[in-house]
Amino acid sequence: MTVTAPRGSQKKDTPSAAAVVHTGTSEIRELFTRNLRTSGIYIALVAIVALFAGLTGGASLGPGNITNIVLQYSYILILAIGMVIVIIAGHIDLSVGSVVALTGAVSAVVVIQYGQPWWVGVLAALATGLAIGAWHGYWVAYVGIPAFIVTLAGMLLFRGLTLVVLNNVSLSPFPADYGQIASGFLNGLLGGQGYDLFTLLIFAIAVIGYAFNQYRTRKTLISYNQLVPSFPLFIAKILVVAIAVMVFAWQLAIARGMPLVLIMLAILIMVYSVIMQRSVFGRQVYAIGGNVVAAALSGVKVRTVNFWIFVNMGLLSAVAGIVFSSRSNGAQPGAGNMFELDAIAAAFIGGAAVTGGVGKVVGAMAGGLIMAVMSNGMQLMGIDQSVQSVVKGLVLMLAVAFDIYNKRRAGSR
Amino acid sequence: MADHILEMQSITKTFPGVKALSGVSLAVERGEVHAICGENGAGKSTLMKVLSGVYPAGSYGGDILFKGQTCSFSGIRDSEHAGIVIIHQELALVPHLSIAENIFLGNERRGASGLIDWHKTNAEAAELLASVGLREEPTTPVGQLGVGKQQLVEIAKALSKEVQLLILDEPTAALNDNDSAHLLDLVRALRDRGITSIIISHKLNEIEAIADHTTVIRDGKTVETLDMTDPDVNVDRIIRGMVGRDLEAFYPDRDSNPGEVVLRVEDWTVKHPTQDRLVVDGASFEVRAGEVIGVAGLMGAGRTELMMSLFGRSYGKFVSGKIFMHGKEIHTRSVAAAIEARIAYATEDRKAFGLNLIDDIARNISAASLGKLASWGFVNHHEEARAAEFAMKSMNIKAPNVKSIVGKLSGGNQQKVVLSKWLLTDPEVLILDEPTRGIDVGAKYEIYTLINSFVDAGKAVVVISSDLLELLGTCDRIYALSTGRITGQLPAAEASEERLMTLMTKEKELTA
Ligand SMILES: Nc1ncnc2c1ncn2[C@@H]1O[C@H](COP(=O)(O)OP(=O)(O)OP(=O)(O)O)[C@@H](O)[C@H]1O
Ligand SMILES: [Mg+2]
To answer: What is the ipTM of this complex?
Structure first.
C-alpha cells in the first residue's frame, strides 16, 4: 500500500528520501488503523457475504435470492435509518416494532375494512406514525423522561392498541395495488434481452455519482492537509465498489428488475445521509449526542431537536409498517415483533456508540445488511431458528467488541 | 549524589500524528516538591500519565526508575501498588457517592465477612479528612462539595493508598486564592511527612513558593531543571525556559477610551433551579463599547450563575430584571436569542460545558454559528473549514489540522477552541468566564492581546476571574459580587487586591 501525504500547496518537491520513508511508514500505519476503524464494518459485510456464498454454494448470491433479501429486510433497514439518528442523539427507541404493527393495522383497517383506496391507507398510517412520534417526542424532549422508559411504555401501549384496532384478529388480503408497494418492480422500461436495461442504467448512474462524490471528498481532505490513500489505491477502491454494485445490479436485472422498495430505500438513505452529514439539523443531533450541555450553551434548541428526532422515528416506523403490511399482504396483531432489536443491532453493528454522538446512516445500513445476509444465508442452509438466534447474538457482541478494540488501538480514549 | 526516588530517562510517546514526548528526562529527589512547567501541549500531563501507568509499559519509549528499580507498569493499579498516585487535571470523583466511599473506591475496607465494614470505612475516612484539614462528615456526598474541597478529598484518597510519590496535575487551576493556599500548605505538610510530590501548574508564583526543583519542558523535551533555592531563579527565569525568550510583560498595554454603553443589566434576580433561594439578587451593571469590565467574587458568589442566566437564561429560574443592548431592552429567553443579540458566553468548564470532545476542531468552532455558515439549512463546509483554519492560525492552536479531535488537545488548546467558537459568532459583548484557567503564560498573554484587539474594535468584554491580579491587569472597571449581590465597583486604577477582597467578602448590605 502506498500513501501520499499532501502538505499544504499541491506540487511541492518531496524532501529527502530518508524523511519520506520515515514519515511514510508511520503514516501507512495510521492510515491503516484509521481505515480499519471506519471501514471495518464494510470489510465485515464483504466477509460475511463471501462466507455465506461459500456455505450455500453460491445460492445466496443467486438472482432470485438477492431480490429476496432486498424485499425481506427493507423494513428493518428503514427502521435502522431512524434508529441510528435516535442513537446518535443518545436515546433509544424500543417501540418501533409495535409502531410497525399499529401503523400497518391502521392502514389495513382503512383499506380492507372501509374499502378506501390504497393511498388513503398509506396516508392514515403515516399520520399515525407522526402522531406516535410526537407523543414520544413530547415525553422525552419536553417532560424529560428518558427515552428508554418512554418507548418501553410505547412498546406495550402501541402493541395493545394494535390488538384493539384489529379486534384481535388478522386482516387480509389487501387489494393488488397495495401489494405493489412492497413487491412491485420496475421492469422493461427501457427494454433489454433477458435483462432489464433500466435497472442497469439506474445503478450505473449511482456508481458514477458515488465515484464523483468520493473524488470531491478526497479533494476536500487534501485541502485540509489530511492523509489520503494514493491515487491508484483510491481508483482501485472505487473500481471494487463499482464492480460489486454492478454485479448486484445484474442479478436484479436478470431476475425481476428494479424493486420499488429498493428505489424508496435508496432515496431514504441518500436523503438521510445528506441530512445527517450536511444539514444544520444533523449537526445538532451529533452535538446533542456528544455533549448536550455544550450544545445547549451553543444555542442548539435541544428540546426541539429531540422532539423532531422522535417524530422522524415515528414517520419511518410508519413507512416500515406500510412496507411490511404490504409484503405480508395483511395486518397481524403480532406483526413487527422484535423489529426494534434488529434495528438497534443494525445501528450498533454499524458503528454507533451507546454513549451517543457517533454513528452513520450508511454504517447502520451495512450493519442491517450483515444481519440480513446472515439470517437469509442461515435460512437457505436450513439452520434451526434457535441456532440463528444464537449466531445473531454473538455477531452483535463481536461487532461491538471489535469496534471498541479498534478505537482503543487507534489511541483514543 | 542526590538521593533520587524517581528517574525518568529519555521518555518518548507518540500518538497517531503527534509526537507528544520526544526524550524527556526527569529526576526527582526523595522528599522534595518537584514542579513541572511548560506551555500548553508541552507534554506535562502525558509524561505523568506515562509515569502512573495510564499509558502502559510498551506504549512509550525510555526507562522509569522508581526507588532504584526499573518499573513497567501495565496500569494505574500497578503504579499505585508501588506507591505512586496521580491526581488528574480533571478530578475523578463520583458525585453521588459519599466522601468515605470515594476515598476507598476500589480499595474498600472490608470486615471479616468480606462485606464492607462501614464503621471502619467512615472512621478511617474521618482520620484522613482530619489529616488534610477538611472539616466535613465522611458521609457527605462529594457532589455537594466545592472544587477546593473535592481536591482535598482526592488527596485524602491518595493518602489512603500509602502514597510515596504524589502527582498533582494542575491542582489549583480551578481554586481561588484561599483554597490554593490551603492546598499548598497541605503539600508542604506532606513533604514534612516524607511524601515526595510532583506538581504541575501554570501558576508560576505558586511554583516559586513551593517547589524545591522545577523541571521545564518544551515541545516534548526537557529544557532544564532549576534549583529553586538559587536566588537567581524566579518566575521570569522559569518563563524564559518555557517559552525560550523573555516575556516583556504579563499584561499587554491598552489605551482605554470607553464609548457609549453597550450592555446594561438592571436589577437582575435569579432563583436556584431546584432550591428556593436567590442565587443572584438585584444585580445591576453596565459595560461600554471599548471597555473591559471584571467581575470579582469568591467561589459561590454567583458570578457564573449571573452571567449564565443573562446568556439566554441558561441557568436557574428567572425572577426579575431587564437587559438593554444599546439602550434598547432585549428579551433573550433562549441561548439562540442571546447569540442573535450578539452576546457570547465562554464557559469556565470547557470540558463539561464548552466542547463536544469527541468531535473535531472545525465542528466545535462552528457549533454556535451554524446558522451563519448555512444556507437553506445546509452547512457550507468550505466556509466552515476556512473559518476553522483562520481561527487555528490566529489563535495559534497547536493541532495537526482542523479535523483533529478536540478531546485529544491539551487543556490550553481546548480553551482556544472555545474562544474561537465564540469569536466566530461575532459578538458585541463577550463574556469570558475564567478565560485563562489552566493556560500557560504565553497563551495567557495571547488571550489578553485578543481581548484588547476585540475591545479596540469597539466591542465590550466581561471577564470573570478568581485571579485578582488578572482582573487588575486587564480590566477598566471591576465589579465585586458577594452572595449574589453586587457590593461595589472600582475603576481598575483605584482598585487593589485588598479593596476588592473587602468588597467580595461584604455580606448582605447594599452599597448605594
Ligand atoms: N490521547 C491523545 N491522542 C492524541 N494526542 C494527544 C493525546 N493526549 C495528548 N495528546 C497530544 O500530546 C501533546 C501533549 O499533551 P499534554 O496533555 O501532555 O500537554 P500538557 O503539557 O499537559 O498541556 P496543558 O498545560 O494544556 O495541560 C499535545 O499536543 C496533545 O494534543
Ligand atoms: Mg495538562
So the answer is: 0.80
